[in-house]
Amino acid sequence: MRVIRDLGPCSRAELVNQTGLARATIEDRLTRLVDAGYVVAAQSASGTGRPAQKFRFNDDSGVFIVADVGSTHTRVGVTSLNCELLGTREVPLPLDAGARTLFASVAESAMELLGDLGLAASAVRGFGGGTPGAIDTAGTHFMPRDGWGEEDLIRLLRDELSLRGLGGFPLELDRDANIMTLGEMRTSFPHIRDMLVVKVGMAVSCGIAANGVLLRGAHGFAGDIAHRPLAADDVPPTETRCRCGLENCAEPMMSGAGIAAELRGYGHEFTTSRQIRTLAGTGDALAQAVLGRAARRLGIVISGAVRTLNPELIVIGGNLADQNSSLIEMVRAAILENSHPLVTAGLSIVGSSITVDAGMLGAAHLIRDALLEPRAVDLRLNRGEGWL
Ligand SMILES: [Zn+2]
Predict the structure, then answer these.
(1) Which of the chain's ends, N or C, has fewer CB atoms near its CB within 10 Å?
(2) The CATH number of domain 190-355, selected from 3.30.420.40, 3.40.30.10, 3.50.7.10, 1.10.3720.10
């Protein structure tokens, strides 16, 4: 199942080659997977001779619902089981509307999207999503922010979906930076083993791929690089306390929310990262200066992670960074200035090419991975449960 999931249609001989298993074992395994509906015979390619029969994942047997919850708006989508976006919606609700209200809107948008696509609720095979803040491995939200408590997000989401007739399928939630990292890993950089994906929006967060695997840490909090004290010579004259509880924390000094707060002092009113990016793009000297300081702090913070993890690629995305090459250049300069040349030799630092879709594509891979994880498939096969 894992080989077919990751490599696409395979013949019996290719499965033997990939797994090293005996042909009889492959035959037995294929029979079980075909009988249970996970795998179907692939259409033979036209050509001369009789091609070997290939087998593929049964990807036309449903869809996933995905959601990427952001600080000021949330994107909801429906994807194929191969994680291609079929339709998207934007929910313009800030986080401080509360988790239940926001998930209710996500569920309503999902129902509307399914209707637009002519699909029944029974076509949904799973839900994948990401939210800001920190989520432990059980789906409970920690480091509460913007009115969200320390609550069981999976349960809240399941309640709101089932109220609208959407239920009976598994749900997976992760940190926003983690789903973004999965999206970049699977869509744009499948051959990169070690990378950082930094999301720069109203908040700053980071996902880590180490040796080809998303690194979550012991309890799901790996990658929280932004909440740490500022360098001593960078501390502002007025003492500040971050929502994480730390005094003089770097995160509010380099995030869209922090930049908006600083610009508010000069009479500019912003509610989204896109608005800040647009003002800086017009050449506004003040906005560029504030953004420049934030970018330098971000580069210094990222250089700490670079020294620890020695990545070969850093992707900088999020609404403040997307289509903002000058911000990425400033961050790149600060990373290189604050890292040993040996550690940054061969390091690429780029903007995201899939921009706003990275999170939703990653959310689709999150639920797909969970459903097709070999041990999960084995467990369902042994219980006599099929894919369909
Ligand atoms: Zn903090």
Answers:
(1) C
(2) 3.30.420.40
> 70 CA to middle of ligand 1, Å?
18
Q: What pTM does this model have? A: 0.92
For domain 2-57, give the fold.
Arc Repressor Mutant, subunit A (1.10.10)
**How far does residue 146's CA lie from ligand 1's centre (Å)?**
14
Which sequence spans correspond to the domains of the chain? 2-57, 63-178+359-382, 190-355
Distance 229 CA to ligand 1 centre (A): 8
pLDDT digits (tens, 9 = 90+) for 15-61: 999 999 999 999 999 999 999 999 999 876 655 667 789 999 998 88
Using an 8 Å Cβ cutoff, are 379 and 7 in contact? no
**258 CA to centre of ligand 1 in angstroms:** 11
* Domain 63-178+359-382 identical in fold to domain 190-355: yes
Q: Which of 53, 29, 33, 31 is nearest to 43 (CA)?
A: 53
β-pairing verdict for 124-131 and 63-69: parallel
Report percent pLDDT > 90 for the chain: 66
Band of pLDDT at residue 146, cut at 50, 70 and 90 = low
Q: How far is the CA of 248 from the centre of ligand 1 (A)?
A: 8
DSSP string of 265-320, one letter each residue:
TTT---SSHHHHHHHHHTT-HHHHHHHHHHHHHHHHHHHHHHHHH--SEEEEESTT
Q: What spacing in Å lies between the alpha carbon of 242 and ligand 1's midpoint? A: 4
Ligand 1 centroid–CA 225 distance in Å is 10
* Cα(243) to centroid(ligand 1), Å: 6
CA 274 to ligand 1 center in whole angstroms? 22
Tell me the two tokens of residue 109.
């948008």
Could you please state the CATH topology (level 3) that the domain comprising 63-178+359-382 is classified under: Nucleotidyltransferase; domain 5 (3.30.420)
Higher per-residue confidence, 136 vs 260: 260
Helices (H), 140-255: 153-163, 176-183
